[in-house]
Fold each of these.
Amino acid sequence: MRWLLNTARLVRITSAESVCKKTFIRNKNKVRIMSAPPNTATPSTSDPNSLDLDKLRLSVSEQGDILRSLKEQNASVDEVKKATTELKLRKKALEDAKFEANKGNWDIDRKKLEDVVKRRFIYSQAFSIYGGVAGLYDFGPVGCAIKSNILNEWKSHFILEESMLEVETSMLTPEPVLKNSGHVDRFADFMAKDVNTGECLRADHLLKAHLTSLCEADDCHFDKYKEYQSVITQMDNYGQQELTELFKKYQVKNPRNGNAVSDPVPFNLMFATPIGPSAANTPGFLRPETAQGIFVNFKKLLDFNNGKLPFAAAQIGSSFRNEISPRAGLLRVREFTMAEIEHFIDPNEKTTPKFEKVKDLELTLFSKGQQMSGGSAVPVKLGDAVESGMIANNVLGYFIGRIYLFLVKIGADPSKIRFRQHMDNEMAHYACDCWDAEMNTTYGWIECVGCADRSCYDLTQHSKGTGIKMVAEKDLPAPVQKQIVEVVPNKGALGKQFKGEAKAIFTYLEALSDCDIKEIEQSLEQNGVYELKIAATDQTYQLTKDLITIEKKMKTFHIDEFTPSVIEPSFGIGRIMYAVLEHVFKIRPEDDQKRYLSLPASVAPYKCSIICISAKPEFDPFLDQIFTSLRRLNVSFKFDSGKTGIGRKYARTDEIGIPFGITLDMDTFGVKPHSVTLRERDSTKQVRINVEEVAQVVSDLSMQNCTWQDVLQKFPAFSASADSDSEQK
Amino acid sequence: MRWLLNTARLVRITSAESVCKKTFIRNKNKVRIMSAPPNTATPSTSDPNSLDLDKLRLSVSEQGDILRSLKEQNASVDEVKKATTELKLRKKALEDAKFEANKGNWDIDRKKLEDVVKRRFIYSQAFSIYGGVAGLYDFGPVGCAIKSNILNEWKSHFILEESMLEVETSMLTPEPVLKNSGHVDRFADFMAKDVNTGECLRADHLLKAHLTSLCEADDCHFDKYKEYQSVITQMDNYGQQELTELFKKYQVKNPRNGNAVSDPVPFNLMFATPIGPSAANTPGFLRPETAQGIFVNFKKLLDFNNGKLPFAAAQIGSSFRNEISPRAGLLRVREFTMAEIEHFIDPNEKTTPKFEKVKDLELTLFSKGQQMSGGSAVPVKLGDAVESGMIANNVLGYFIGRIYLFLVKIGADPSKIRFRQHMDNEMAHYACDCWDAEMNTTYGWIECVGCADRSCYDLTQHSKGTGIKMVAEKDLPAPVQKQIVEVVPNKGALGKQFKGEAKAIFTYLEALSDCDIKEIEQSLEQNGVYELKIAATDQTYQLTKDLITIEKKMKTFHIDEFTPSVIEPSFGIGRIMYAVLEHVFKIRPEDDQKRYLSLPASVAPYKCSIICISAKPEFDPFLDQIFTSLRRLNVSFKFDSGKTGIGRKYARTDEIGIPFGITLDMDTFGVKPHSVTLRERDSTKQVRINVEEVAQVVSDLSMQNCTWQDVLQKFPAFSASADSDSEQK
């Protein structure tokens, strides 16, 4: 069976309880990318005609038309659901076929990269001497430097260039914060237990593995195959009840040992830990995302920005998710670095003049329209995408452009980057648009950056939970008369009825939006009562007309007060790093053992290597001189003092992506002026440079003040013996 | 009552169970700095003569002599203990008096600094809209930038300049790792509970507060006062039993409400959280220090360094300690950034040629000798300190010098840095020497960096726990015949007796040091049995002669295999940052409201501010030009577009330590060549510079390629109206 991957979701998806009350849930086990179905009789692999992508595209497109027309005719929910399922199934077959068709294009072998990663301690499973812990990784010197350089580029590209406000907030988070943000109740995956061994398994993994093995059975009929695949394709949509029923229906067992498994139960993915000595007093969690640390500081940040919108706050930091069964290396881990931006903006002014700077960029966009019609991702100019409405507004468009430029800057292959728009059914209700930057890897297209318009959800939630206004203000051009609506509590009656909890109700009522008040008004009129749920106290209160009154009055406004919208680009740094490593991993055509990471100098772990042709003490003063000059220029380097030959040393530095190499040879102290050779990693070409000059040249190359072409022109080429790169004399 | 501070300990202290078996405990509530005793009749404050520092010094010195002579005469433990207590008491009186005498020298007012910190969101208590959580802090844009710049300087000063191997390891840590390191059993403070309210209180805080209030009572006799103070002084040394007895003896109550409190119990300071879905399977903790992540990766790092010693690994990362009652702002927190270096070295070659570079540095050293004799910290050249044996070896001396240079580089006042040597009684048994870099603040001398020779403790522990050798090798000049001693297990008998646990015993026996084996041999000979404690299984096993045999044989060695020693400089970044903020906080003599942070440019949150004399659109192209040039040069800046006057804007940028300010005034577009003014924060002097040149000048100033004096000489001075700095025209 081929390896199946669930790409974890970096952005959050809401399921709206009502138009105004939104809570978000973790979008469970999104089956984004999957290898082709197993080699049984299937439409997508066994029939040679089925490999015809055009036919598959047509089949998707036809189903898309059917779905659209059903929606236009206001067909029943059931009918629409059925048609959506069929569409998904067809889309999956198409994706599988496309993946299969493209497989030949992969010029990297994951195993060879993994060998380098392990052997050179780029990263490795944490606590390996203790047997290791799944989902935890340690970064060795090379991995740590690459990651740190990616983050520095990120800071310079976003924080410095965009004048963002960088913050660093607490990872330990008290429960009420995550209660209000929705994580305590809903940030969960479904889990089932092996009833004999107690092993915990992810319900969706279990179901999928079970159905896949049924598909693989020799006697699997095509109708059954289609049914199983249909269930797999819909995996995202199942709640606890549906999963329980499917477990029963298909008699799901633990595939490892055939043991029975329990019914699926939700498992919250946050790491819980009490804060302070009394567990009862302050329950807390490790944050599952860095964003909440920005939202709770919104008022301070707005103040810092002199009360002005728009502004963006950014944070680089660790987040934690207690995955039930982490796998796929850096792609699904329990502790990971995120870089998140929350761009706060007036919801009525979602436009930026800076869009001009990116509007001519041509990106590969995979819009929901193309996904619906079975089309491919296509190159589109950002300007056109915004103008045609494919991208909702130019602020979102601007960030998409900036994300693309960042990924390319740190070494991603532009042909392996696409932006995929969320389908209507997977997108949060509060979001008017959401695009994921996906990077193509041997695991398929992996979501690495989410870029969503998150509306005012989080600020509103924290405001309701604390009673503290989370709003911005702007001067109105002229005073405006407006009707205002308030919910006025009958404090005496409420106090009498709800005692100590009445205060939380007052607080909540003060922070209501107009939209909320409308809902309360309607409910009171229709039912005579409004059922108030408060996340912070986890209680429901029956509010009747004698307890609250809706009051309307006219008021003159000189300033407009509003809850800002948030546009959130959210980067998974580990995933980006892994994808870049795959993109830059190369093997020299002449020798399969000669592997190198073609990293840009800015991201490379060291800017240059230093190699000495022998350990003679005559070299020492020249080494010292070069070390000192490089350090003065803040250029990182790695001195390889090992006893192996030059060729082996070059291979060692290439393998970890060091772009330039200084070699001290016999001519260095034998001939005046004293000189060394400088080698470029990708071309393996060398020039000869004086000892005094070489550090500055490496610095200029690393800072992109000059190119290797410039160096080739300025300095005499050096060619050692014929096989110089395997064994220089 | 004056505010008392316990400075938390950054380095670990061992209490040796035997010479070879070391486990470390957290050095609880080290009373390092304390304000003078309350104003009752006390020898140190009420009697004017007692303020005579010389007398106090003499009294300490005399007692030091007594203690020394007792030790020479091999006096009883009790006698020595008594004399040590008296010495401590006298030293405390001296320290208090010195602190009192120096108080007048403080030219900073903590409240004023705190006002700036809060108002400008340098940092603030986390989750303040939720009421805040003690011991958790968020860094706003200014604090985040300062902290990040300190860390960048740290990286450049240590990792780059010393070619250290930087790693980034997991914060979540499985229990066995911390069991072997000793944290699970011993990383605890003592806690008592208010029996009525359930409030958790630190036992030592409680006892101290109680005794202090007894001291303050009007009817407190001098004898009693001395007794109470003596208990306070010895607070570090008390274990659970002694604390329990003292609680009873003095009838300790909760000072807040007079309620009775429970007996003290140990409270482990690690945050516990299970890793993975099954709590029983993988208990884990958030790491209390970053060092263990380096130790468990020792073999990979040695490999990466081609098997060569010495080398240093370094890590910057978060650690977590669930303090019972955190206080004193950034000085005692629950989540904090550490920067730790583990320098691995051959225990027989503790010497470095690099010491030459720092040997002439004159530092303020407070040796244990001076502490014993009541002397002061004195300036000593590092070379002399190592030569005289005051500092144990020149590797330790080298790091002390490098730490000092780092602290000064990031803005610490050299006169407020001292290195205090651990006394014999506070130093770990495995450590041959330990020095703390302390920084003087309004809270007293605060330990900010620990620099200890940690011997081979951790590597040995992990080796014993996993059975994996943690050793380095070196070629012997000639083959050597050596007797080797092994403990040979009788596997059959052990297996029969200990069943499933026998494997842990085999593993343990394989990893024994010669020293361990000697102990086992002695015990077998004397008692016929050896009691084996294994931390990993938390069990004790009775090993008799029929279960194990000690075998000795001669063997020829070509390489020497040894467990490296570790020298560990460990930096508390939050504390360092706080101390530096105090050191650089200044108030202009002419106006108490004009406050500024005199941070070096490399640490300043932004390198320059940009101010425009009005919002006229004519300025826009010049602003754009300056923004673009600064970004191209990677120079961070803050544009203040607010509507307030220039003077107010200068004050705002000074307050957050921005070293340079560019102002666009009427001459910028009115007169050709277009020019701006450039202002320096500390002197408030200004020059006039052409628009095209200004970014490069700021970049040169920030990178220390030129000084402000150079700029003053090169460019024409600019003086605005008389009170230019309060309101420039």
Amino acid sequence: MTMLHRDRYFSPDPAVRALARSLYDRVASLPLVCPHGHVDPRMLALDEPFPDPAALIVIPDHYVVRMLYSQGVPMEALGIPRLDGAPVERDPRKIWQRFADHFYLFRGTPSGAWLTHELENVFGIRERLDSRAAMRIYDAIEAQLAKPEFRPRALFERFNIEALCTTDAASDTLEPHRQIQASGWKGVVRPTFRPDLAIDILHPSWRQEIERVSDRSGIDIRDYGSYIRALEDRRAFFKSAGATATDHAAVTPYTAELSRAEVDALFARALAGTATADDLHAFTGHMLMEMARMSVEDGLVMQLHPGSYRNHNDLIFERFGPDRGADIPLATEYTRNLRPLLNKYGNEPGFRLVIFTLDETTFSRELAPLAGHYPALRLGPPWWFFDSIEGMLRFRYAVTETAGIYNTAGFNDDTRAFPSIPARHDVARRVDAQFLADLASRHVIEQDEAEAMIVDLAYNLAKDTYRLGEVRDAAGPTA
Amino acid sequence: MTMLHRDRYFSPDPAVRALARSLYDRVASLPLVCPHGHVDPRMLALDEPFPDPAALIVIPDHYVVRMLYSQGVPMEALGIPRLDGAPVERDPRKIWQRFADHFYLFRGTPSGAWLTHELENVFGIRERLDSRAAMRIYDAIEAQLAKPEFRPRALFERFNIEALCTTDAASDTLEPHRQIQASGWKGVVRPTFRPDLAIDILHPSWRQEIERVSDRSGIDIRDYGSYIRALEDRRAFFKSAGATATDHAAVTPYTAELSRAEVDALFARALAGTATADDLHAFTGHMLMEMARMSVEDGLVMQLHPGSYRNHNDLIFERFGPDRGADIPLATEYTRNLRPLLNKYGNEPGFRLVIFTLDETTFSRELAPLAGHYPALRLGPPWWFFDSIEGMLRFRYAVTETAGIYNTAGFNDDTRAFPSIPARHDVARRVDAQFLADLASRHVIEQDEAEAMIVDLAYNLAKDTYRLGEVRDAAGPTA
Amino acid sequence: MTMLHRDRYFSPDPAVRALARSLYDRVASLPLVCPHGHVDPRMLALDEPFPDPAALIVIPDHYVVRMLYSQGVPMEALGIPRLDGAPVERDPRKIWQRFADHFYLFRGTPSGAWLTHELENVFGIRERLDSRAAMRIYDAIEAQLAKPEFRPRALFERFNIEALCTTDAASDTLEPHRQIQASGWKGVVRPTFRPDLAIDILHPSWRQEIERVSDRSGIDIRDYGSYIRALEDRRAFFKSAGATATDHAAVTPYTAELSRAEVDALFARALAGTATADDLHAFTGHMLMEMARMSVEDGLVMQLHPGSYRNHNDLIFERFGPDRGADIPLATEYTRNLRPLLNKYGNEPGFRLVIFTLDETTFSRELAPLAGHYPALRLGPPWWFFDSIEGMLRFRYAVTETAGIYNTAGFNDDTRAFPSIPARHDVARRVDAQFLADLASRHVIEQDEAEAMIVDLAYNLAKDTYRLGEVRDAAGPTA
């Protein structure tokens, strides 16, 4: 018995389904290219057994926690640690039982699809998670986790991960990456330079981060000039440790260059602790320009993830901290906001900018037209709430007619849930196969084109976009 | 002969269609739960025969009138009364003929689907409405309306309505509701507390409404404090008359609490007739907070319907008054606007807020993420222009992946067109069956899950959301 | 062999496909009504042979150039002339080869579909354009272009174009139109009055255009009053030359009437060269009102195309000029912006306004509700990036339920690529056939209704909307 139908996510039309399946079969076993995600590199450096099922699958997954919370399950009952140290549920079996009791909430959601795939393909569970099966499934996972083949590196190899990029602060030592490389293990784990904290001049920990960046770089940050030099130094360090990309978050994709005098004064205010919200907005827009300039120079691919209202729920943030499922998207404007950056750097042959969005309306209206013109720009895959079957389909139908597939960046799993990585790539490959099968069935493309395109979507585009090595010969562009 | 195909609105794919039909058959005869609508309760209190077909079906239906007007049919020719008393068409047969002459305009629209269903299933008309059939159909309906089984209460019972909620001003006596209860008739008709006029401090009739609320509550509204006490008193009265919910309209979903001093001063300006447009905006945002606070206290479910630009066409408003089909949606922002209200009350276990929108872009971007996090929030069904086959499908595909189905509120018919109620529920049940059949056919969910979910969508979620009694055992959450 | 499947763009479901094909077959050979486009009338006045394949198909097509540029092909390598006269590729074979090398980029795009259709149906090319076939195909096209039956007028007749409307500045002499009429050739080519330059008071060439309008009208423009009289004179001239419509671009659809004193003063500033950006905004909004007033008076159909950020890429604009694929859409608001114009003129029986958008979110939220109410308003077909298979399907599904099909304007090809005209109409007719076949297969409409509606969508609505003559008896409204 299996909970995973062989033809899941394909059209019910028999002819389309057969074609989708044949396209999927071409890429189902290709290595996984993971150019953007949030796996903790220490996990692979230490390679220790995973803890219990609740600690592995429930507690750290904000997709799971948010849905249960939305239906009245207290965070405490799920074992989410409180910042004030007040007691929360400690028994992983009770947490797992609550999760199982509410697993019906995930019907029709990507979390449901991923978890079902993970339970079956990683842990061999072949029954549905519900109240009655909860403890039986818990026991089975617990038994597996004790085995050496369920340690992180063994799973990495079994998952056939070709490269895994992590996300790391500007001040990070990248010590886990060094340890992995020194260990003799062949798994490719690359850092990604994400200087958000070093740029967020109003963040309570900004000064600390600036001090750490000073320490790591050996450049004492005392003004804007030394700040920029220190960040350049850190980028060079990341690059030497294998990084091929940077990543940036912002409330909006506003970009605009300040004069040197303006930014010197602004940075002085930031150091003095007198910067304002307007300063932060201006500085973020300016620093995106600076990061683009550095990417032109050092070749690191620039990623931008704007449009999330972080920590929307004060009570949850104050009690449990960030990343608990309370980040909510905002309407986002790209045409005017990105213009300064694209005007200055978007025609540069060596520059590459990957843009993500949480506002689907921008796909056909702004992002596909921009990506279908500026050489530097590629569209990141559907992000977060849209990394889903319907979300990915809407993305492809919305952008392909204007940008084609070759101005898109392939798939990112974007996850901290390590054992869900194969599930996420599998869903994406199935959805892309279905998309192409639909186009070919309607004779929008020919079948041989679909056969080349599926390799591009499943493998080549991610690798090419993030400069992770040679792509496959079977690729569309070379067919 | 029939104009209603057994499998209408289902996929043409034979396997999907068969599954959709089997899901639909499970719920086709379930009672109708009608938690939000605009049926006049006097109709059921008096239980008098309906007037002629034009007065029943054409004149009061702004969906119908707007379409005919958009294609050049004057309002006067449809018998819409002019505020200035100027003559309009009085002959219902001429009005009906004009309607029939233009019935082709409704091809592919929900009004077309509802009217066809209503003509056939309520009145037994089994031919298409067009110029030639117009008078024949008129005669047939007219003959039916004379029969006792076509009186309002008889139709209510035949329609199998389990509960019907009306919409009533804060000052309403709820006398028709009292008459219905006193009559011994078993039909359940509940009021809904809609204090829009009592909150719209710039409305020409606001002072009158405040006086009426004072009279009804026995609390003389002379300042903000007495105003709030009077509204609380009215809510208690509505609750004692069977209300389980309130309803609120606003141009935007802006929410923000004023200080007591600010709101005291603002309310004094309102009473003095010196309030400004800014005051109205601030007061509306403040009163939504107050209404949420009261809902936390008294348990009435709070509904919010923002984003309609009412009476967009001055000429029509001045000549014919409101609700003539000239209300136009606006882009609407929820993430920032609802934050104050959700931060203060969204984590309250006893609070329930049902949000509607006329801006489909917010479904996946803002509303599903909010509903998939805040325990208090449920998403109302597609409203007004989106209460349609494609509109409902887009809603389900847009929100389910992030919010699941259990953060949605089931179906509302939201209509003043009493005889169209079964048609509206039937379309919704068919669309939900099709949605679930599609998911099951693509193995996104399993068939047994679809079988539980269709009962939730067609019946349980509306009843549970609006606190209208026990739900069915077969429901998804308990399956 | 053919690259064009007989059933392309239809559903893969056999029953839906058969119905779509039967609907398409009803309209496939109807004459082409082309009420809005950018074909150069001199081409038809002179009737000279087309130049080489690159100059005909690659260099002038900004859809093609933008995609190649986005993937790193320099504009210069495609033969796009530089404004500074610097050398660019002159060899049409090398340009064609580069185009062929990158033709895979157009997989899944409307440009790909149109080009494939054009190559096969106009030029008889029955193999895929790629690197190896490039020169063979070039030779074949070149040979065809030398033949008399490939001259513009011969193609016009072979394409079965019933009427072709061009787009012409307010100062245009319409000399090519006069020549065509004087030549004895029977092809119907009508001008369209597009006064954008005469209204853009900040454009470097505005003064020149004003002088030209003065010259042509014989009315010396020295103030606002004479300016308006001159424009009215020009409209009368266009109408006498066969125009039935005007066309207007604007960054936003803002409309608002200035007082006579305000506009007199503003226009004086414009003539003095001291107008500001705010003046331009106000003047554009005012002139849209004036243009509507004139349309009420002279019966010319008014078209409005708002929401494009023109020349987004400074480098491309400075080096190559406008219309090189760097125009990017903006979010656009219609409900508030169009209210002044619709309030003043939207109820006028003789007025017709056709609205286009580059913001798909407005279709269901603003435009369909507006068009489903105001008698004057019709929705233009999906424009630019949305004139595509998926774009047209999304349009129909988004607007039909609220506005029906009879408040839409039929198809416009909107192209300057003359030989692509049949391809564009063919795609539109296929997509509309598929849309109707889907509705009929789901019993949303009946088959006989679909059979009437396809004629309306493919032919009658364009002709009726633009007042281009009598429509066909088989039309839906008269069926």
